[in-house]
Amino acid sequence: MPNLFLTIRNSVYCAVLVAAIVVLGLAANFATIFLPHLHRPYVIFSLVVSATTIVLFLLILLRSQARAEVFFLFVMDILWLAMAAYTTDVIGPVECFPLGGQRTPTKSGSMSLQTYCYEMKAVEAFSWAVFGIFTIWLILLICLLTKLTARGHYRAWEESVNDLPWFGQDQLYGGGYPQQMYAGAQFGGAQPYVIQQAPGHSMVIQPNANGGPPMVTQLPGTVRSGI
């Protein structure tokens, strides 16, 4: 069964990467047109935020610890909030359509003010979108890790993010998240049963009607016998 968490995570991060690449492209265009004299602080900030996001995302998509990823998401969330707020402050509540025919100065002349307005609006929209995605994903990841810890998976914060299950699937994957196991191995003519109990779980042992190894199921919490 595919890891639903990993599929959702990759989809979310791919969407963020696309948005960051768009912002980086627009910021690079602004740098070509305006730097080094016009809009310098804003252009440099937008270049740094978008480029840093792309580089770090490519790294964490390969391998990342849950605790480190939460910290990374928190920092990126703040940066993109600042990026969105900064862009909103620069462009303001301006409508671009009436600006047709007007010009704005550049380092080598001028450009269409309407084009500049549309590009800034695009940066603003993508910045707010990335901030929203980061915020939602950060909350979901913290909730997931907290839930796994409460159910006895105390090393969830130290696990690789690639090994984490989605909500309700923590019994389907390895790496400390087993659902059930069949114990039994031939050893010197005997058949001992070696079972490793997951932290915070109770074992339910059911005999095999065919005389084979018993089926052992691990359930979170305490299970009381009805006998």
UniProtKB/TrEMBL annotation:
Domain of life where this protein originates:
Eukaryota
Membrane spanning residue stretches: 12-36, 42-62, 69-88, 125-145
Q: Which UniProt keywords apply?
A: Membrane, Transmembrane, Transmembrane helix
Q: What is this protein called?
A: MARVEL domain-containing protein
To which species is this protein native? Rickenella mellea
